Amino acid sequence: MKTIVISNRKGGSAKTTTAVNIASGLAKHSSVLLLDFDTQGHASIGVGCDLSEELGVHSIFSGKTLSETFIPTVHKNLTLSPALVFFDVYEYADLRGVLKNRFKMESITEFFDYCVIDTPPTFDALLKNSLEVADSVVIPFVPHHLGVVAVGQMLRALYQSATLLERKVAEVYILPVMYNPHIPEHKECVEKVKKSFGEAKMLSPIGIDIKLSQQFESGIPIILDEKRSRGLQDYKRCVEELLERFQGAEMYG
Fold first, then answer.
1. What is the C-alpha separation between 186 and 52, in angstroms, rounded?
2. Could you give the number of structural domains in the chain?
3. Are 5 and 135 in contact (CB under 8 A)?
4. Mean per-residue pLDDT for 77-105?
5. The pairing of beta strand 71-72 with beta strand 78-81
6. More confident residue, 115 or 91
7. What is the CATH number of the domain that holds 245?
8. Domain that holds residue 14
9. The model's pTM
10. Residue 61: which pLDDT band, with cuts at 50, 70 and 90?
11. Who contacts 94 (Cβ-Cβ below 8 Å, separation ≥6)?
12. Tally of CA atoms within 13 A in the half-sphere of 186 that contains its CB
């Protein structure tokens, strides 16, 4: 199983939109587990599921198994562990390694081809648990100055986590979102990220499409929509690029 963490410490960066579409796109080819680690629960809504107040992915921190939180979604190959909306990470003293141990104890890697984790925009125990199991990290960012700064902050958090855990640094992919090629600042910021962090880390941008926000009302990720749209085409290309990178990493890694 390959675990893909979708993360950016800056809010408003289309993190959840990216998580549900990558997970749903991969589910067209493989079995996928989506973990909604952000207590807002928007990823759960995005794949047609209700929010949970009693049992969800955060229940693993109070002794529940991960597998007992699994529920079906809008795609037969996509399983969700929903957010526990009233979970408060600050009520717990030490949450290190909990998700990693659940993966191991329940042999989660044997049941799915991919795991996609939607994370909160904070550097807390939830993000740290996610990074402990990450094989790849996708960082969506809006191409303006603070978005570029956020990419650098996220990369430092990733390297810090890998150093502390003495583990291999996860593969990094940087995804421009809400991108308009006719806006000079957008083009300049994308070029700055390429120069600062390496063109090999870049994915093709996701353009502006109102349907990307409307998809949460329907509970169907745009990548599963039968009607052609800019958002569908962009996220389909994103998934295809990721699959190509994953295959290349396996071949040479």
1. 38
2. 1
3. no
4. 93
5. antiparallel
6. 115
7. 3.40.50.300
8. 2-252
9. 0.96
10. very high
11. none
12. 15
